[in-house]
Design goal:
Pfam families: Aminotran_3. It catalyses: (S)-4-amino-5-oxopentanoate = 5-aminolevulinate. One of its GO terms (biological process) is protoporphyrinogen IX biosynthetic process. This is Glutamate-1-semialdehyde 2,1-aminomutase. The protein has 438 residues and is of the alpha/beta class. The chain is built from 15 helices and 14 strands. It folds into 2 domains: 175 residues, Alpha-Beta Complex (Aspartate Aminotransferase, domain 1), CATH 3.90.1150.10; 248 residues, 3-Layer(aba) Sandwich (Aspartate Aminotransferase, domain 2). A 7-stranded mixed β-sheet has the order 4-10-9-8-7-5-6, sandwiched between helices. It has a 4-stranded mixed β-sheet with strand order 1-2-3-13. A hairpin with a 4-residue loop joins β2 and β3. α2 runs antiparallel to α11 and α14 crosses α15. It is globular, with a radius of gyration of 21 Å. The structure holds 4'-deoxy-4'-aminopyridoxal-5'-phosphate. 4'-deoxy-4'-aminopyridoxal-5'-phosphate (PMP) binds next to α4.
Amino acid sequence: MALNLAKSAEAFAEAKQYMPGGVNSPVRSYRSVDCDPPFIAKAKGSKIYDIDGNEYIDYVGSWGPMVIGHAHEAVVKALQKAVELGTSYGAPTLLETELAKRVKHLMPSIEMIRMVNSGTEATMSALRLARGFTGREKIVKFIGCYHGHHDSLLVKAGSGMATFGVPDSPGVPKSVAENTITVPYNDVEAIRKVMAESGKEIAAIIVEPVAGNMGLVLPKQGYLKELRVLTEEAGALLIFDEVMCGFRASLGGAQAAYGIVPDLTCLGKIIGGGLPVAAYGGRKDIMLQISPAGPVYQAGTLSGNPLAMTAGIETLKIMTAIPEDGQPDYSRVLTLKTKKLLLGLQVEAKKAGLKLQFHQAGSMFGIFFNENPVYDYETAAASDAEAFKVYFKSMLEQGIYLAPSPFETAFMSGAHSDADIEKTIQAAAIAFAKVAAM
Ligand code: PMP
């Protein structure tokens, strides 16, 4: 079945005349999979529809936020009501405190929070705060972890940079990048060495506690605990970037799943329910350093925007609703659905004679076209990119919408049905057979 993308191709050609690469964020361009991207017209539940009239089962979910499905009735209704009241005031509202309380309830380490507009802003501000609080300048990040596109963290980042094979971006001042120490993920000896040598100069270690930007890579047993111990010993802060894995690795995020209390946490995606929201928060004594309570400056015209707060509140309300007697809660249902899909994919891969790596963390999942275990950027990058391309294109042709890169994670939503999962497994059987025949 050949996919008709004629209108999308035309739209893409026009968009390229007005926007670099035709897109507002690089991976959307599909350049890494050598085809034109479908232009999206609408989305509902588990499905996304392009301007050519094709329907897809969506496992991108706007790169994570759409955990309750697209255009959920409760979110749409709440937003319709909210929009009548004005779209932005730049003044305090009750909605901000409500969302703050809901987040704190799910992640008690977040004693205080500051809302911002993107994950990039959240990690950028959390780093400034860590530097302001400790009076130190150096930070540690892990190779293949992506924390947004600001200067300090755009160093050996995963995600789009890995997709396009750009280890470092031009335009990041050397003087800034010099303060960023990069270490392989999951390598206890490497981080111990760095902390032994430079621990007293380090303001913070920032980590994706479940890494979703080099494909999905899970922390080895005891690894996060080691980061907690090392930061405490050095007087450095531990920042969990849960922009992606927050409310997905478990309802309380990776910190609940692995039982680690970070000093600061960055959130995004789900807390905005598909509108532009992110946040950073954590220990009260640290957060009180933020202006106007303290001297570390950070601000935002649209921060805490009422529409965005509304969408976030409604999303968390649905995720935390008490289930009927004997039924699993929302996040457990998501985990079970994801498990069901992955098991089906595993069976089909085996039937096709492929040995692949399957990873899951709650409602996040990923496949590596790699016979060997994947636990860091190097092992992730050793996966077969050509095999991924064949798999990706076959899935797209069969109406399964995945991220167009082997360095991204897939997301399950509450709207995905058993029929969706079954259809996806059947499509994968065909895609895996194509890969096996390469
Ligand atoms: N941190 C993580 C873990 C992310 O996955 C992302 C984006 N995918 C970001 C930060 C940056 O978020 P944003 O794209 O909203 O700036």
